[in-house]
Specification:
This protein is about 25% helix and about 30% strand. It is α+β, with helices and mostly antiparallel strands and about 220 residues long. The structure holds N-oxalylglycine (OGA) and manganese (II) ion (MN).
């Protein structure tokens, strides 16, 4: 991988901030650098091949449980172990700075995991945080698969926060595509995939607490 640290373009940052303000979600193509996507994809596939992934659960802390009928991915939390991870986290740090500058969101941390969805798996409709417990403020998803075809499935569908049955957008999980939305507002799901599907889901967090309890990072 080249040594240049890939940044998000200034026009991407402007479009993203505008879209979040206007409708609560943003989708872009070619947002994440192609070489970086490839390095991240290689890293994820390597982990999958040597079974160094963990099954993803739902809920946090005591309420955490494995529910393959709700969510079928395996994950690995980013830990800055590779150059590719550090570059991706660097780009997200720039995005965090821009969100704080433009929207005064007071975001203070970013957590993210690789996600691998094997053929036949999905993630049912959900939100990424709950009102009043909104440590996760902004959700992000970066897609890593090159050459994703229309018959391959695995799209992420976004729904209207006011009418959860109304689809508002559909994202093909193609390398370079990037989605960003308000974590406690926008219901979304991952449709069943026919091919191994690779993404990085991440969340900008605020240091809010409820009754003095701060959500654990993961
Ligand atoms: C999630 C999620 C979407 C995707 O991990 O919470 O909604 O497209 N992921 O990977
Ligand atoms: Mn989600």
């Amino acid at each position: 991988m080249s040594l240049a640290i890939p940044s998000l373009s200034p026009s991407t940052l402007t479009d993203l901030v505008d879209a979040l303000v206007e409708r609560g979600w943003y989708l872009g193509e070619g947002v994440i650098d192609a070489t970086l996507c490839q390095a991240l994809h290689d890293e994820l596939r390597e982990r999958v091949a040597c079974q160094a992934m963990q099954a993803a659960g739902i809920g946090r802390g005591e309420a955490h449980s494995l529910r393959r009928d709700i969510r079928g991915d395996t994950i690995h939390w980013l830990d800055r172990a590779t150059t590719a991870q550090r570059h991706y986290l660097g780009a997200m740090a720039e995005l965090q700075q821009e969100l704080n500058r433009a929207l005064y969101l007071g975001l203070f941390e970013f957590e993210a995991h690789f996600a691998h969805y094997g053929p036949g798996t999905f993630y049912r409709k959900h939100r990424d945080s709950f009102r009043g417990r909104a440590n996760r403020v902004i959700s992000t998803v970066a897609y890593l698969n090159p050459d994703w075809g229309p018959a391959d499935g695995g799209e992420m569908v976004l729904y209207d926060p006011e009418d959860e049955s109304r689809e508002v957008a559909r994202v093909r999980p193609e390398a370079g595509n990037f989605a960003c939305f308000l974590a406690d507002r926008v219901p979304h799901e991952v449709l069943p995939t026919t091919r191994p599907r690779a993404s990085i889901a991440g969340w900008f967090r605020r240091n809010a607490s409820l009754n003095g309890i701060i959500d654990p990072a993961h």
